[in-house]
Amino acid sequence: MGGRILTLFSCTLYFSILFVLTAIGLTSxxxxxxxxxxxxxxxxxxxxxxxxxxxxxSHEYHVCHQQSGLCYSVKWSVEYPVLxxxxxxxxxSTIKQVYDTPIEALNILTIYQDGNNYTxxxxxxxxxxxKWSKPxxxxxxxxxxxxxxxxxxxxxxxxxxxxxxxxxxx
Length: 170
Known about the structure:
Elements: H1 2-48, E1 49-66, E2 69-83, E3 88-99, H2 102-111, E4 117-123, E5 130-131, H3 139-169
Antiparallel strand pairs: 1-2, 1-4, 2-3, 4-5
């Protein structure tokens, strides 16, 4: 009777460990592939933009309408140099940003004022696309991928040891 209880406990513990390891393994695989799926487009977008100096020529401020209600639009006319393979040329473009509150829009207008120069980023493939902030870094998604694939590898090694141990034991 004691042997049966011990066997039942042993089998229950074995299957519980396998269940927990499989849950961790599946979660780590999902984390790895989500990280990979986010890393690739973020990395491409991040590497597409080049920093330059924008001269603010003028700005416009408008109240706009969205589905959620009022919004506040700020549009700057800017001039910036673009480095081609052979020479440098200056382009004129606009930077447009939309805000939910007038306070946000007015605060950003105090930062980017007419007649001043600021760091901006243009798309090297579409040089008329320019923005104030650098695109999101792919670094966090790279870390997510590394952690996910590392945990996945550890999962397969541990499961492999368990299977080999069970086969050798029989």
